[in-house]
Amino acid sequence: MISAVDFTLKPEIADLRDRVAEFIRSECIPLEANPDNYDEHENIRPEILSGIRKQAQKVGLWAPQIPKEFGGMGLSMTGQAVIYEEAAYSIFGALALNCAAPDDGNMRLLSMVGTDYQKKRWLQPIVDGAVNSSFVMTEPHPGAGSDPAGMMLTKAEKSGKKWIITGKKWFITGAGAAQHFMVIARTSDDARKGLSCFLFDKDQPGWRISRRIPIMGPEEHGGHCELEFSGLEVSEEDVLMAIGDGLKATQIRLGPARLTHCMRWIGMSRRAMDIAAEYVRERKSFGTSLSEHEGVQWMLGEAAMNIHVSKLTTMYAAWKLDQNDKARKEISMAKVQVAETLNSVIDTCIQLCGAKGYSKDTLLEWMYRYARQAKLVDGASEVHKMVLSKIYMNEGQDFWKWKIQN
Q1: Which of 17, 54, 256, 399 has the greatest number of beta carbons closer than 10 A?
Q2: How confident is the model at residue 194 (pLDDT cuts 50, 70, 90)?
Q3: Are residues 165 and 276 part of one domain?
Q4: Number of structural domains in the chain
């Protein structure tokens, strides 16, 4: 049954949002101002993160996306949209609540399709915050990028009761800090059933990290790495789903993962706006505060409008997922809309703050470098626009039709 679209919040979600907001402001934001709390890659030091994670667990603000039986909060996608946004008001917030990428998407996938053994062995330690994880798919040229089904070169070949994996991967987020991995490899030449997903542990032989790739922005823990597989052995019980279901597993993971990126990016956009708003209220120019200048008002108004459109687009896609709809076009639209908004909003806020915005006296320059990846990760904006074009050409005017409530 399709429920009506309703953008009002249930009282329990509103209360939870307020609790998260208070936690973020009291526990996370104060940590941002101290340079000693950052590691060499400009993210929160693991020992500092461990402390605020314990606090989050203590007050029941932990793993919003995971069912309660595993220790999470068991929220719907629309509930997650509210909480993720509020968590990401701090650059450390999503990590504190254990809803940051790549663990977020990996936990979600394992909780949805893992066997009982796989949930106990591979999922539960990530939920508990005992280990980090990584999703291993992208390859260097001429291997898989935006077209994994057609271009995957990493192979998994059967040998007795084991699968032997060989190949190369790159830009694997979080690999340097991960203990648990899931890797996509080719097991046949079938166009739709040629890929499979395998689970493995950092300490297994037959693979290595060849380098940590330097990037422009601040990095997730574990960075973005190149991996080489030279005979990694994986048992049959560590095949996620069935042999040939690798593309399906990828699609199950990446759809919601793209949307949770959007949720977090909205929170960051809101934070950037508050930094700029505080500055233009206080800064005087030509006899009045900057906030009273018409040009400044145009810039703030457009940015605020774009954030609101992003919220609506994201919440609608979340609602569609809650209706058991794949929401393919809605997620693609949200991914493009929010990624573009994040970049434009932060750029606007730096402009409004002038030299202070460009300096490290505010978080804006950190956000600016971090935000550029938004238009690339989990499908470049252009790829999502191609998807939308194909859907439109197939659906025509039905592209914009509302579904009728049952």
Answers
A1: 256
A2: very high
A3: no
A4: 3
Return the CATH number at 152. 2.40.110.10
Q: Which of the listed residues 240, 268, 300 is the one where a domain comes to its end?
A: 240
Q: What is the CA radius of gyration of the chain?
A: 22
- Asked if residue 65 is part of any domain, the answer here is yes
* pLDDT per position as a tens digit, 38-76: 999 999 999 999 999 999 999 999 999 999 999 999 999
Helix (H) or strand (E) holding 203: none
Looking at residue 2, its pLDDT comes to 67
Specify burial of residue 319 (Cβ count, 10 A radius: 0-12, 13-18, 19+).
buried
Domain co-membership, 227 together with 259: no
Residue 110's identity, in one-letter code, is L
User: Please, are residues 254 and 149 in contact by the beta-carbon 8 Å criterion?
Assistant: no
Bridge partners for 209 per DSSP:
227
pLDDT, position 1: 62
Both tokens of residue 236? 């049959």
Last residue of a domain, one of 240, 272, 288: 240
Q: In the block, which residue shows the tokens 């919003």? A: 64
Work out the average pLDDT over 121-136. Answer: 98
CA triple 87-88-91, angle to 5 deg: 120
Residue 101 region by backbone torsions, left for phi larger than 0, else alpha for psi between -120 and 50, else beta: beta
User: For 212-327, where are the alpha helices, taking DSSP H only?
Assistant: 246-282, 294-322
pTM above 0.90, yes or no: yes
